[in-house]
Amino acid sequence: MKYCEKCKVCISDDSNICPLCQSSLVNKGEGETDSVFPYIPTMYNKNSLFIRIIIFASIAASVISVIVNLIVSTKVLWSLFVVGGIMCLWISLAVNIRKVKNIPKVILHQVAVSSVLVLIWDKFTGWHNWSVDYVLPFLFVGANISLGIISKLMKLKTDNIIFYFLMNILFGIIPIGFLASGRLTVLYPSLVSVGCSIIAFSALILFKGGAVKDELESRFHL
């Protein structure tokens, strides 16, 4: 059996050149078989120490904040905000960490997860309306702007990320529901979000209408 010292794989045929890296193969004795497939470390393997350090730091920060809060004052449980913030950060990372190579998908998932987290946060802190007045509208606007900038910087073809543009635009129109409900105390963030989404959708239809049609047909089998 032939063996590639560079790729660390065994080749079962009579080739003298590695099909992966084109390096010369060496003979490997019988019985000394390794895995046919090379070992490819995941992001967890590559950064396991760093990830463990961050997890430890998160746990330590949560515990220390609770202890300091209980020692100094128990009237205001500000440590719960620290713990909640750290938990939200890790939930967000857990959702997106496997899609780090697909930035448009990361942005879309980040918008969805962040929207749920800020609504929960506002609800459990007495519902002061800041989530729907400010955070969600600006989050949707920021997502659309970020996707546009990243697509230019990374030279991504618009046809390949139409779906992510459409979903982010759909998120940006959600504040219409906030406006219709009459529960908003501040109107301009939602108006900006809806306006930006309408403009972005108009641009897609006018300049990439065929790509939008093809994407919708392929996604929803129309």
Give structural notes.
It is a single chain. It contains 8 helices and 3 strands. The chain is 65% helix and 4% strand. Strands 2-1-3 form a 3-stranded antiparallel sheet, with no helix packed on it. The longest helix has 33 residues, at 188-220. The chain starts with a strand and ends with a helix. By secondary structure, it is mostly helical. The protein folds into 3 domains: 1-40, no CATH class; 42-100; 101-222, no CATH class. The model has no long low-confidence stretch (mean pLDDT 82).
Question: Could you provide a short overview of the structure?
Answer:
The chain is mostly helical. Helix content is 65%, strand content 4%.
Topology:
Elements: E1 2-4, E2 9-11, E3 26-27, H1 43-46, H2 48-72, H3 79-96, H4 103-124, H5 130-153, H6 162-173, H7 175-181, H8 188-220
Helix pairs in contact: 2-3, 3-4, 4-5, 4-6, 5-6, 5-8, 6-8, 7-8
